[in-house]
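About this split. The held-out portion is used to measure sequence recovery: a designer receives only the structure tokens and must propose an amino acid at every position. Recovery is the fraction of positions where the proposal matches the reference. Here is one held-out target exactly as it appears in the evaluation file.
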């Protein structure tokens, strides 16, 4: 993704594609190279894992904070100890959440998204919230759903709730931290999230009467071990170098069209028969070789997260500013945005938009011609193909949503120019 860092005057839309300043990628890590290197001194300090646990206790106001190998593993870990057999979740979200439920041996039931929203709300959960089920609510892209109403619905129906706050770390709803509403909350340190420490997850126990916290802390889905994430550290250093504005402009950006070539050739050479639908018998052995299930949080990772937590309010302020720029720039344009009134912009992970009446593939093609690599996630909703007619809003989201970057190294000027360029692309894109 390209944007100007240096220009100080507004550029006409017809010439904005000729940016003379630096360029920035879709995502830059919040872990700067100094953080990555300074955290190597973790062994010279008191064990950072208890410190991180204490920091989360203070942040959430909860006593029981449990680390897991990843956010998805945290969900599987909770589900594996619950006697309920069915999990209700949105039809549009990360496929790893569905995999976690399958690893835990649960039957998955999907609910549609609310219309003109990226979230499933209490209205969508109402019919599926039958006694003895688990309601897994999510704040997609960091946009809060009406989690209070979902939890109240669950209590009235004798359901257990899990709050997937993985993409919404630091976000609040009515002043209360997301992840502290449901019976269990889940955060993540995945590399794509606000506090990237390669991988790792956090379980926040908001209701200790459902599962014994000691048992939850001792439980693991598969056998795990703790190891220094050396390869991940090297990859993060390389990522930071490759996304430095001048390196990105002259070296990384020209190579981006080739990024899918390697995976395509690999798939072509190693093509295998289409696998049967995933189930617990197939999923559990796969998890036993997956570092997102087998690697415990290392003290080095804890030291990284502690460093980022110290500047969390600074991050929130910058993210809120960038989101406000996008929102204001797209106001009174055909581009659709999805932030509800009162949304905590500071907790957003990405800024979702859509181009009603336009072909997303054509929009993405026009963007690439200008050097803009717009992000698309979850191009297929979670239900099987034959079931998707029952989830029209999730299908629409999968086919139409586009994500804009939100990270603290992105300048407000870059966000403004990027939004202007997106408006111009929407203007020239042919109607469907």
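Reference sequence for scoring:
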């Amino acid at each position: 993704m390209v944007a100007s860092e240096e220009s100080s005057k507004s550029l006409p839309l017809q010439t904005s594609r000729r940016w003379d300043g630096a360029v920035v990628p879709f995502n830059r890590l919040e872990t700067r190279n100094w953080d990555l290197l300074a955290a190597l001194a973790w062994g010279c300090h008191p064990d950072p894992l208890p410190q991180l646990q204490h920091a989360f206790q203070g942040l959430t106001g909860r006593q029981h904070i449990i680390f897991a190998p990843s956010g998805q593993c945290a969900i599987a870990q909770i589900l594996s100890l619950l006697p309920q057999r069915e999990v209700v979740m949105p039809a549009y979200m990360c496929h790893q959440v569905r995999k976690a439920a399958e690893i835990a041996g649960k039957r998955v039931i999907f609910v549609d998204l609310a219309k003109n929203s990226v979230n499933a709300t209490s209205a969508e959960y109402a019919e599926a919230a039958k006694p003895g089920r688990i309601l897994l609510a999510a704040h997609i892209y960091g946009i809060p759903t009406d989690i209070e109403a979902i939890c109240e619905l669950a209590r009235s129906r004798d359901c257990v709730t899990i709050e997937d706050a993985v993409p919404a770390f630091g976000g609040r709803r009515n002043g209360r931290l997301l992840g502290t509403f449901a019976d269990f909350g889940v955060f993540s340190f995945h590399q794509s999230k606000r506090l990237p420490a390669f991988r790792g997850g956090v379980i926040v126990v908001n209701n200790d009467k459902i599962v014994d916290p000691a048992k939850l802390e001792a439980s693991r889905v598969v056998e795990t071990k703790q190891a220094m994430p050396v390869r991940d550290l090297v990859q993060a250093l390389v990522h930071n170098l490759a996304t430095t504005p001048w390196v990105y402009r002259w070296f990384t950006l020209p190579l981006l069209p080739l990024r899918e070539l390697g995976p395509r050739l690999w798939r072509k050479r190693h093509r295998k028969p289409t696998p049967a639908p995933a189930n617990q018998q197939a999923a559990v052995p796969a998890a036993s070789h997956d570092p997102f299930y087998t690697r415990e949080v290392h003290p080095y990772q804890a030291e990284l997260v502690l460093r980022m937590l110290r500047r969390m309010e600074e991050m929130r302020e910058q993210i809120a500013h960038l989101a406000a720029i996008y929102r204001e720039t797209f106001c009174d344009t055909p581009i659709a945005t999805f932030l509800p009134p009162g949304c905590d912009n500071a907790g957003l992970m990405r800024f979702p938009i859509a181009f009603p009446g336009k072909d997303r593939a054509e929009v993405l093609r026009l963007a690439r011609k200008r050097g803009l690599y717009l992000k698309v996630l979850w191009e297929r909703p979670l239900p099987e193909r034959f079931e998707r007619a029952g989830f029209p809003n999730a299908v629409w989201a999968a086919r139409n949503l586009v994500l804009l970057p939100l990270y603290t190294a992105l300048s407000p000027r870059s966000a403004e120019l990027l939004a202007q360029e997106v408006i111009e692309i929407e203007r020239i894109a042919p109607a469907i």
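Annotator remark: The longest strand covers residues 133-138.
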